[in-house]
Write a structure and sequence with these properties.
Layout (H helix, E strand, L loop, with lengths): L1 E5 L3 H11 L6 E6 L2 H11 L3 E4 L8 H8 L8 E6 L5 H6 L4 E4 L4 H14 L4 H8 E6 L2 E7 L5 E5 L3 E7 L4 E6 L6 E2 L6 H5 L5 E3 L4 E4 L3 E5 L2 E4 L16 H9 L2
Parallel strand pairs: 1-2, 1-3, 3-4, 4-5
Antiparallel strand pairs: 6-7, 7-8, 9-10, 9-13, 10-11, 12-13, 14-15
Helix pairs in contact: 2-3
């Protein structure tokens, strides 16, 4: 989801931007230190999430909310990001979605983003129902992936080698056996959604989720997979994910 931060306090903006970087589905498209610049960014980017300070050098956050209604072409979840608690009621009356108080609490941010996910119908169960239809045929589990609005492909779990995040197109893709090109998923699919499909899928970095059943070894921090995925040589293990991967691999 596209996000913007409108705040004239640079340290607070940097802290929030760093925290948002941990969420694969958040695409921080820009920041602004004044209301007028922020309004131009909103008009250009049309974000799904906006983090907005109450006190800006050229206008209040409330005034920003009022002017924003005229330029936003689609719904935007506005989260007030401020050190002032006094404007909470006024913010909600002007259609703010939530309220974060500085200094930023990481758990509070996670709660806010979780609420937005639920509002956007991208909780794990809901996304799977919308994007991938799971069908069971005896012991054979299958996923129905839509390759575009009308075409689809039924894939066995055992034929899925990995999921990878395409930064250029900002979507997750699934790499399937006997298929040259990966299948692109809908934009509201995220890593939590994919991990919830089955416990054989394990995240090894922010960009990759592998089918653990195909993991042969990790050599020089690169995952080597069994055929038919043995030609893939670009899956690096992230430092934050290494311990869990080792524990999961040892349990096989």
């Amino acid at each position: 989801m596209k996000a913007l931060i409108i705040d004239d306090e640079t340290p607070a903006t940097l802290v929030l931007a760093k925290k948002l970087g941990k969420y694969d589905y958040i695409d921080l498209c820009g920041t602004a230190c004044s209301g007028n610049i922020g309004l131009k960014l909103v008009k250009e980017v049309q974000p799904e999430i906006l983090f907005l300070d109450i006190e800006l050098p050229d206008m209040s956050g409330i005034d920003f909310l009022i002017q924003m209604k005229e330029i936003a072409n689609k719904p935007c979840h506005v989260v007030m990001y401020t050190a002032h608690k006094d404007y909470m009621l006024t913010s909600f009356r002007n259609n703010a979605f939530d309220y974060l108080v500085k200094p930023l609490d990481e758990k509070e941010l996670e709660t806010v983003l979780s609420r937005i996910n639920k509002k956007e119908d991208i909780s794990s169960l809901e996304v799977i129902q919308q994007n991938e239809t799971i069908e069971k045929n005896g012991n054979e589990e299958k996923l129905l992936f839509y390759t575009n609005t009308v075409d689809f492909r039924l894939v066995h779990f055992k034929d899925i080698g990995l999921f990878q995040y395409n930064h250029e197109q900002r979507v997750w893709e699934v790499v399937v056996a006997c298929r040259k090109e990966p299948i692109k998923l809908k934009r509201n699919a995220n890593n939590e959604t994919l991990l919830a499909i089955d416990n054989r899928f394990v995240q090894v970095s922010q960009k990759y989720i592998i089918n653990i059943n195909y993991l042969l070894e990790v050599n020089n921090n690169i995952c080597n997979l069994y055929p038919p995925f043995d030609k893939i040589d670009y899956i690096k293990v992230g430092r934050m994910y290494r311990k869990k991967l080792i524990e999961r691999f040892n349990s096989l």
